[in-house]
Amino acid sequence: LEITRVKLSEVAPWARFKLEDDDLDCVRAADEGDIEAQCDLGLLLLSHGMEAEAFGWFQKASRHFHPEAMQWQGRCLISGWGVAPDREAGITWLRRAAARGHATASHMVAWLDAHPSPALEGAELEAVLDRIEQKVILGALRDTAE
Q1: What is the pLDDT of residues 8-54, one digit of tens each?
Q2: How far, in Å, CA of 105 to CA of 74, rounded?
Q3: Is 48 exposed, middle or buried (0-12, 13-18, 19+ CB in 10 A)?
Q4: Could you tell me which residues come within 8 angstroms of residue 69 by beta carbon, excluding any fewer than 6 positions away?
Q5: Contact (Cβ atoms closer than 8 angstroms) between residue 115 and residue 131
Q6: For burial by CB atoms within 10 Å, which of 78, 84, 105, 138 has the most?
Q7: What's the DSSP call for residue 13?
Q8: pLDDT at position 16, please?
């Protein structure tokens, strides 16, 4: 097996979206095995509609028990972002993230447990999960402001 290395700065102009300097640092760190950067790269890719690629990076970080990556892997599975939809597998990943203290995952699991399938599917379910995430984030911001 032969490995060829290229400079990231030389191939970055061909990316499907503009990579800022911080993005390039994130790509380098993720490639070098930085678990936090792997999750961050997944989020960056997800924000640019590259769902399958994002899912792969969430999987890498989840293997190292990164709660944020586990939560996003669960979201991807539930919503079918970059992977075939699998509600039960998604809930399993959310439970794993919640068990590691991820507040958003914990709230999502509570809602999903109270509303078993097929209560909501597709875009309606995504909207509920988005609202849960927003509520948790706003609550955390409010708590830190006080």
Answers
A1: 888 888 888 998 999 999 999 999 999 999 999 999 999 999 999 99
A2: 9
A3: middle
A4: 35, 38, 39, 42, 57, 58, 59, 60, 61, 62
A5: no
A6: 105
A7: G
A8: 87
Q: Is the peptide bond before 118 cis (omega within 30 degrees of 0)?
A: yes
* 3-state secondary structure (DSSP) of residue 71: helix
Map residue 51 onto helix, strand or coil. Answer: helix
d(C-alpha 139, C-alpha 118), whole Å: 29
How many other C-beta atoms lie within 10 A of the C-beta of residue 12? 15
Q: Which single residue is written with the structure tokens 């290229």?
A: 6
Which residue matches tokens 């070098």? Answer: 32
Over range 90-116, report the average pLDDT: 96
Question: Dihedrals φ, ψ of 81, to 5°?
Answer: -85, 105
3-class SS of residue 55? helix
Q: What is the pLDDT of residue 130?
A: 96
The three-state secondary structure class of 61 is helix
